[in-house]
Amino acid sequence: MPIQIDNVTYYSATEVIGDLNVSRQTLWRWRNEGKVPLGHRYRNKHVLFTSAEAEEIRQFANRIEPIDQSDANQLKLFTHKRPDLSKA
């Protein structure tokens, strides 16, 4: 449940990750890499995000990017051809 502090609505990290269906580790990695807002420390323990910060995290989590050619070449490395077992 969001909390109000000085007329500002804050959401807990648990609420944000639950809404986005990502793990806590993923959110923390994004924060450490500077991809999403760091949030605010509350009572020296909990991390809270404003509505605007939560929306920024949501937009980052739901972004869609085209695969460029160098990425496409990398993906080919993970394409495995299965052996034809009918010839054995």
Task: Describe the protein.
This protein has 88 residues and is an alpha+beta fold. The chain has a single domain (3-64), classed as Multidrug-efflux Transporter Regulator, Chain: A, Domain 2 (Orthogonal Bundle), CATH 1.10.1660.10. It contains four helices and four strands; from the N terminus they run E-E-H-H-E-E-H-H. It has helices spanning 13-20, 24-32, 51-61, 69-76; strands at 3-5, 8-12, 40-42, 46-50. It has a four-stranded antiparallel sheet with strand order 1-2-4-3. A hairpin with a 2-residue loop joins strand 1 and strand 2. The longest helix has 11 residues, at 51-61. It is elongated and about 70 Å long. The mean pLDDT is 86.
Global shape: elongated
Which bin fits the share of residues in helices? Answer: 40-55%
Q: What fraction of the residues are assigned to beta strands by DSSP?
A: 15-25%
First and last CA, distance: 61 Å
CATH topology: Multidrug-efflux Transporter Regulator, Chain: A, Domain 2
User: Regarding CATH, which class?
Assistant: Mainly Alpha
The total number of structural domains is 1
Mean pLDDT: 86
Biggest sheet: strand arrangement? 1-2-4-3
Give the H and E element order: EEHHEEHH
**DSSP E strands, number:** 4
Give start-end ranges of low-pLDDT stretches. none
- Please give the CATH architecture: Orthogonal Bundle
Our count of helices gives 4
Biggest pleated sheet: 4 strands, antiparallel
- Helix and strand content put the structural class at alpha+beta
Gyration radius (Cα, Å) is: 20 Å
